[in-house]
């Protein structure tokens, strides 16, 4: 055995001790990013569902219920009428500790059917 091969065993252990926690944090960050993206998509879908219901001249409570059924848990839903348009806004918090708990929003606008002749 060469002299350089006798002392290389410790380097692999030290490199693994540094790389494994970094890979774990990277994996957790990717999972959090996917969860936040999925919650954002849910907010947009919920806003669309609420806007469709409100555009059909459903009562505001029905439009809010339609949006809440598609929204992430704990989301806030707002419905507003602006002339011929109905605007629905859904806000939720992405799961995560501290600064990773970002605020997500989805908004949809639809033309009220009672204004179409």
From TrEMBL:
NAD listed as a keyword: no
Keyword field: Membrane, Transmembrane, Transmembrane helix
InterPro entries: Rv3655c/TadE, TadE-like_dom
Coiled-coil annotated spans: none
Residue stretches making up the TadE-like domain: 10-52
One of the Pfam families matching this protein, by short name: TadE
Residue ranges crossing the lipid bilayer per the database entry: 12-35
Keyword Mitochondrion: no
Name of this chain's protein: TadE-like domain-containing protein
